[in-house]
Amino acid sequence: MRALPGKASRQPPGPEPVSRAASAADQRRRILEATAGLVAEQGFAETTIEQIIRRARVGYATFYKHYADKQEAFLALLDAALERTAYVVEEAYDREDGPWPDKVGAGLGALLEQVAAHPDVARACLVEAPTAGPEAAARHEAALKRFAPLLRPGRELNPRSDKLPDSLEDTLTGGVLWVINQRLIAGEEAKLRALLPESLEFLLRPYVGEDEAAREAGGRESASA
Predict the structure, then answer these.
(1) Contact between residue 49 and residue 70 where contact means Cβ atoms under 8 Å apart
(2) Neighbouring residues of 35: CB distance < 8 A, sequence distance ≥ 6
(3) Which residues of 116-155 are buried (b: 16+ CB within 10 A; e: fewer)?
(4) pLDDT tens profile 169-199
(5) Which stretches of 6-110 are assigned E, i.e. beta strand?
(6) What pLDDT digit, counting tens, does each position of 193-222 carry?
(7) Angstrom distance (rounded) from CA 158 to CA 162
(8) Which of 53, 51, 48, 50 is nearest to 30 (CA)?
(9) Cα Rg of the chain, angstroms
(10) 3-state SS string over 126-137?
């Protein structure tokens, strides 16, 4: 129907058309959010494509347009979440202009904040990834190694750095993430931020010694109180 002369300019604007690219991105977002929620709730093995489709409110054709199967959707979730987490931690570390222990504290604080803010994604990616197939486990392991360069400068603070094992940084990162995993498994996301002082002391101790690590951790505990 044509508008009457002189009326077209007074018609209320219609909704902005959604581009094909924006629609596809929204579909992927909903699929990955559904995957994260379901895997967090019941584990990777028990999650089905049908459940993902139902929760994401998409059709089978839409799901398969983006992902070949459940594994591919989970790997996409894993890649996106780990990349985002690494970026947030590295940015906080780089932005801190204090000495190295302060930089580690800033990065660790950002990690705990990120996990606490997105517990379903964290539970899916940190708890489930190691048992969700060899590809997921490999990507999870590779992501953990991204944190090693942030800890390695601490070796310069230890006069006996030549005695420190080559695997120290990976061991320390794994220890912190194990504690985070236990909180996630227990449903204690609210307690994650409180892990900062003790986790920081654990990370710093091999580099600066027990007393200095305790002082640094105590400062973080006072600041967060």
Answers:
(1) yes
(2) 47, 52, 70, 73, 74, 77, 124
(3) bebbbbbbbbbbbbeebeeebeebbeebbebbeebbeebe
(4) 999 999 999 999 999 999 898 899 999 999 9
(5) none
(6) 999 999 999 999 999 999 999 999 987 764
(7) 9
(8) 53
(9) 23
(10) HHHHHHCCHHHH
Q: What is the tens place of the pLDDT at every residue in 88-98? A: 999 999 999 99
Pairwise CA distance, residues 43 & 214, whole Å: 37
Domain borders along the chain are 78-224
Question: Which of 89, 92, 206, 105 lies closest to 156, judged by CA?
Answer: 206
CB 46 within 8 A of CB 16: no
**169 exposure class (CB count in 10 Å sphere: 0-12, 13-18, 19+):** buried
* Candidates 1.10.357, 1.10.490, 3.30.750, 1.20.1250; CATH matching 78-224: 1.10.357
